[in-house]
């Protein structure tokens, strides 16, 4: 089974407006796939259907070959799917490491957190989760902030915290929704480096991103959506030079 995600015929309307209209997309095992399109193209809505946050009006979603169309978001995490949100909303008063621990699988996060706070009574399983969270925070260079409340983080650090939370569940595929938006250039280079590293170690990645430089540096292939529908696909260079793609972006800019 070469596809980690195979979705076909996905549609979703909001109050009669088709946000996504008969969209199909396949993510190959090990691939770094870009998803681009002007604002309002339906990219985030597609992510929400793939992740189980929204239920599709129509269509079929296979994750690692298993029909996930009717499962909820929590079930899809168990199937190896992780997703970051376009606008990160960490629990602001919880510490950075407590936020990461909410991404732990199998165990109710509240249990881990309750035990975490009860000093001296931390069971081995919870200690393992804490060690794992520390390793992830180290990988993402957030370890020095782990005991700070999440509210002190910059926009870019919040994007990294999103990724840290997702990595707690050992996903085989990650959906990244605009990880570079609002991130300063220095941190952007670091985020690019880390997601490339995850992909090199075997994680399949689907990336929504407006920063075409980032897309060109990371993506093997790019799918373009416009008006809720599939427009075209190709290499980053080919889609950036495609007149239909340029026209779609200019059309939206002119509205
Ligand atoms: N929860 C929602 N309720 C109503 N309309 C929505 C909702 N989410 C998205 N939309 C609409 O669906 C369309 C696609 O939005 P979205 O998926 O966010 O696009 P993109 O991520 O490509 O910018 C837009 O017209 C948007 O206004
Ligand atoms: Mg979006």
Descriptive report:
The protein is of the alpha/beta class and 255 residues long. The chain folds into two domains: 169 residues, P-loop containing nucleotide triphosphate hydrolases (Rossmann fold); 62 residues, no CATH class. It is 39% helix and 24% strand. A six-stranded mixed beta sheet has the order 6-7-8-3-9-10, sandwiched between helices. The protein has a four-stranded antiparallel beta sheet with strand order 2-1-4-5, covered by helices on one side. Strand 7, helix 7 and strand 8 form a beta-alpha-beta unit. It is globular. It starts with a strand and ends with a helix. Bound molecules: adenosine-5'-diphosphate and magnesium ion. Adenosine-5'-diphosphate (ADP) binds next to helix 1.
Lay out the secondary structure.
Layout: E1 3-14, E2 17-28, E3 32-36, H1 43-51, E4 58-63, E5 66-67, H2 73-78, E6 81-83, H3 96-101, H4 109-117, H5 124-139, H6 155-167, E7 173-177, H7 185-200, E8 204-208, H8 212-218, E9 221-226, E10 229-234, H9 236-240, H10 243-254
Q: Briefly, what CATH class of the largest domain?
A: Alpha Beta
What value does the Rg take, in angstroms? 19 Å
CATH topology of the largest domain: Rossmann fold
Largest sheet: 6 strands, mixed
CATH architecture of the largest domain: 3-Layer(aba) Sandwich
| String of helices and strands | EEEHEEHEHHHHEHEHEEHH
Number of helices: 10
* Number of beta-strand segments: 10
From the N-terminal CA to the C-terminal CA, the straight-line distance is: 42 Å
Approximate strand percentage = 15-25%
Bound molecules: adenosine-5'-diphosphate, magnesium ion
CATH homologous superfamily of the largest domain - what is it? P-loop containing nucleotide triphosphate hydrolases
Q: How many domains in all?
A: 2
- Main β-sheet, spatial strand arrangement: 6-7-8-3-9-10
**General form:** globular
């Amino acid at each position: 089974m070469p596809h980690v995600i195979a979705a076909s015929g996905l549609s979703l309307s909001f109050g009669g407006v088709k946000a996504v209209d008969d969209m199909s997309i396949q993510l190959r095992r090990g691939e770094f796939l870009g998803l681009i399109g002007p604002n309002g193209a339906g990219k985030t809505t597609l992510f929400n259907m793939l992740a189980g946050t929204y239920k599709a009006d129509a269509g079929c979603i296979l994750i690692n070959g298993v029909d996930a169309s009717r499962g909820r978001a929590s079930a899809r995490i168990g199937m190896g799917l992780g997703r970051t949100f376009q606008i990160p909303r960490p629990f602001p008063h919880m510490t950075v490491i407590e936020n990461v621990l909410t991404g732990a699988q199998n165990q109710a996060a509240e249990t881990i957190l309750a035990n975490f706070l009860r000093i001296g009574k931390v069971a081995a399983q919870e200690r393992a989760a804490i060690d794992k969270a520390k390793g992830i925070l180290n990988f993402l260079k957030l370890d020095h902030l782990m005991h700070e409340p999440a509210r002190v983080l910059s926009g870019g650090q919040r994007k990294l915290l999103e990724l840290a939370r997702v990595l707690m569940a050992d996903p085989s595929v990650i959906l990244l929704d605009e990880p570079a938006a609002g991130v300063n250039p220095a941190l952007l280079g670091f985020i690019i480096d880390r997601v490339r590293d995850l992909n090199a170690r075997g994680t399949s990645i689907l990336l929504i991103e407006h920063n075409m430089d980032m897309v060109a540096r990371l993506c093997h292939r790019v799918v373009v959506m416009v008006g809720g529908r599939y427009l075209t696909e190709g290499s980053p260079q080919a889609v950036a030079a495609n007149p239909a793609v340029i026209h779609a972006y200019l059309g939206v800019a002119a509205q």
